[in-house]
Structure formats: C-alpha cells, structure tokens
Amino acid sequence: MLSVENLHVSYGAIKAIHGITLKVPQGSIVTLIGANGAGKSTTLRALSGLVKPASGSIQYQGQEISRLAADKIVARGLCHVPEGRMVFANLTVQENLRMGAYLQKDRQWIASQTDYVYGLFPRLKERENQSAGTLSGGEQQMLAIGRALLSRPKFLMLDEPSLGIAPLLVKTIFERIVEINRQQGLTILLVEQNANLALDVSNYAYVLETGRILLEGPSAQVKADPQVQASYLGT
Amino acid sequence: MDWFFQQLINGLGLGAIYALIALGYTMVYGVLRFINFAHSDVLMLGAFTAFYIAPKIEKLSGSQSALGCIMVFILAAAVCAIIGMLIERLAYRPLRNRPKLTVLITAIGVSLLIEFTAQNEKVFGAAPQPFPQLLPEHALHWGALVVSSNDVLTVSVTTVLLVAMWWIVQKTRIGTAMRAVSYNQQAAYLMGVPVDRIISFTFGLGSALAAIAGVLYAIKAPGIEPLMGVQPGLRAFVAAVLGGIGNLPGAVLGGVLLGLLETFAGGISGLSNYRDAIAFGILILILLLKPAGLLGRSSVEKV
C-alpha cells in the first residue's frame, strides 16, 4: 500500500534520514522502532508532507505523494497522529473530532464514525463538551486517535502513542489500535520507543538507527534477534 | 449622575470602534503570532472607499437613506476584505517561515507604503476632506442626557457585528478551524485543514471589521485623511494587548474599557489635556498586574 524508496530528509545542513526503504502492505501493522533521534518521527513527517524529502520516492497506492501538500495527503486517506498528541486544547472534544472530519462532506458518515470513536473510547463520550486541554495525557491520546479516525483514513501513522501515558491506559490504547486495524481494515504504521509493546502488536518491524535501517523482518523474528534484544528490549 | 451617564454613553461609542479594530489585530495575532501594523491603514482605506462610493450609491438609493447607508458599509467591508487578503498573500505569506521580526518589519513597511501612497496628490491627497453624511444626524434627548444618533448607530452596528463574529468563530466550521489553526498550525495541517485559506479568511474578516470601524469613525470625525487610521489603530492595538492578545472577548473588553477610560479622563475638567496620559497610565498599571492581559492566559504544557 505504501512503499518508500531511498528516502533522504535534511533539516537545513543536518541530514536526518540517509536513504531508507520500507514497505507497508495493506491491512498490516508495521512498526518502526529505534532510539531517540533515530529518525522515526522525521520519517512520519516526510510521509505526511510536513517536511519535504531531499530525495527519494514515497508511493502510496501506486502514486507518488512526496511532493504533495499536507492537506492533500490527508485527503487521500493518509493520516498522521503526531508525537505529543497535539490535540486542540482550546477546543472541546467534540470540536476536535469535527476538525478531524474537516474534509468529510457526508454528515451521516461523520455521525456514525463519531459514534464508533465514542464506542472505542467511552471516556471521550463522557467528556464530549469539555475542552481538550482538561483531559489527561491518556485521554488526549485517545482523542488524537479518534480525531484521526474521523479523517476517514485508509492508512494511519501513529507516533509514540505510549509516550508519557499511564501504563494502564497504554494497554487500553494498544488494544484499541489492534481493534481498529481489524475492524476498520486500517493499515497502520506505528512508531514506538517502547519496542516490546510495538513488536507484540505488529506484523513486521524495521529497526532504525541514526537515519538508516539497521534491521528488518517479521516482528516475532526481530524480537528474537540478539542484537535487538540487547539494544532495544533490555533483556 | 447625569455627567456619569453622559460620559458612559460617549465612552461606549468610542470603545465600540476600538473593539472592532482590536478584533482584527487579535485575530491575526491568533493565527500568525505577529502584529499586522497595516491594519490601521485598512481602516483608513475603508473610510476612503465609503467616501468615493457614497455619492454614487446616493444617486441610486436617494439621499441619506438607510438602504444606501447599509450598502456603503457592505461595499467598504468587501473592498477592504479583499485588500486585507491581498496584503497577506503578497507581503506576509512569502515570509511565513521566516523569523517573526522579519514579518513585523514588513508589516510596518506595508503600513508606510499605504500611508504615503495615499498622501500622493494623484491618490487621496494629504489634506483632510469632509466625509459625506450617510444618515441624517439627530440629537436624542433622554432627560438631561444627549445622545447622538451616530453613537446609537455605532453601538448597534458593533453589537450586531460582535454577535455575528461570536457565531462565526464559535459555531461554524471555518471558525472552529480558525481556533484550531491558532492553537496548533501543524496539527491543523495534519487534519487536512487548508491552513492558508483559513489565514486568508482571517485577514478578510479582520479587514472587513476594520473597514466598518473606519466608516463609523469617519462619520464622527471632522474629516478624513490618509493618516486618520494611526491614532485609533494604535489605541485598538493597545486595547487588544490589554484584553489579552489573541483572545477575542478580550479585544472587545479592552476596546470598550479604553474608550471609557479615555472619555472619563477627558471629561474631568482640568484633566482633559492629560486624558491619554491617564488612560495609558491605567493601562500600564493593569499590565503590570496582569502581564498576559485581562483575559489572556499563559499556556501550560500538559503530560
């Protein structure tokens, strides 16, 4: 569904990504793990059009999207849940969801998808009219995912959904991610520092180190790799 | 007591105009985090648009008719909305990713460009010109109080616009998008919100309000000239800061408060020469106690 070829990204003179190649098949959960500064978030930012790649190609459903503006990429069903959640704290939960559906015209679909999100995360329904700034970190993450689901994605990119969230909520959120993948047939690219968790829920994994792919393979295989165990899994 | 109410009415009339202008400053600050110094010149352009259009409208709708007056307001607002959007497109958008100081200097440049182009004899000329009377003016008596029909017009037009603004910003999709862009531009991009179009809309809306404020100001002023926007513009900017820059109700509150302060200080005999000193002195005091402005809040990062 998505294939990235030899992608290079720089911030000014600093090279962040040195030619990575990866594939995300339709319906799968693929994870990108690696240490801080490995280039995981930068990769997602390039995919969603927030930074323009220096070179390389990004093909989504057979079409080149590396030169498209961010809002055009969302319109094609590629949605990015950014690191740090970035919910609109000054808007209510409901208004946040409505912003997620900004490009959607079909009111009936919006209503039923909103109900689906409230079903996934009943906590959001309870806080529907509260401003998002009053939610806890975990609830904001739920809202960020819910908001993304309202943009009618076919391909969802999640950046560190476990970051700074209470362990109990992390478990809930990851269960929901798997549920979304199965129920809505959504392809997911998951970026995580919590490698254990990410390898458990995903089908395929790429290990990123200083802007290059160090290792890739089916998640179970990557999890068993001695090098990965020593550097990322702390065993 | 009559004195008090008289000043209150005068102050509200002036404050309403400041509030309308302050909204434009604060909205643009909300989405782009810089002060659009050319905003006060848009106000002047609004007044001049009305100045040139009013005689032509009068031929169609008859002298000093309500319909004609409404047409003048709408046309001035429309022309200035386009001018505001053009200024953003041509001068500010190319600098979107540059340091804010660069944009700020550009805004001052745009302001000077408009002012001095307008002073050219072939454009508007520097000399004040009498503004046409759009509606017949009456003095309304209520006990010992005297209210000019122009003040009634100003306050009612402002009230209608404020309600409309509240509705647009709080209830419509584009208004929600404005608030979203103002909170986090990047997240708005990721939701597919066309950020450039929202910013353009914000400039259009702010400039339309400035144009209407300009016409209302011109109705009361002895004459209009290319630098007429500078004084009210400066005060409205202060009003926006006083209310908490970026905060819409704050801009209205700041505008009305500044109008009242100025009128009351000016109404005290012996002090009228110091009215700006008193008004701005009180402002400095408020800002010392509440640096983020009356309704402004410093944001807190949440984990």
Q: Strand order, main sheet of chain A: write it out.
A: 6-7-8-3-9-10
The CATH architecture term of chain A is: 3-Layer(aba) Sandwich
The structure class of chain A reads: alpha/beta
The value of Rg of chain A in angstroms is 17 Å
Instruction: Give, in order, the helices and strands of chain A.
Output: EEEHEEHEHHHHEHEHEEHH
If you average the pLDDT of chain B, what whole number results? 91
> What is the strand arrangement across the widest sheet of chain B?
1-2
SS element count, helices of chain A: 10
Secondary structure: elements and pairs:
The complex is a heterodimer of chains A (235) and B (303).
Chain A: E1 2-11, E2 14-24, E3 29-34, H1 40-47, E4 55-60, E5 63-64, H2 70-75, E6 78-81, H3 93-100, H4 107-120, H5 122-126, H6 137-149, E7 155-159, H7 167-183, E8 187-192, H8 195-201, E9 204-209, E10 212-218, H9 219-224, H10 226-233
Helix pairs in contact in A: 3-6
Chain B: H1 2-32, H2 39-61, H3 66-92, H4 100-119, E1 139-142, E2 145-148, H5 149-171, H6 173-183, H7 185-190, H8 195-220, H9 230-243, H10 248-267, H11 275-289
Antiparallel strand pairs in B: 1-2
Helix pairs in contact in B: 1-5, 1-6, 1-8, 1-9, 1-10, 2-3, 2-8, 2-9, 3-8, 5-6, 5-8, 6-8, 9-10, 10-11
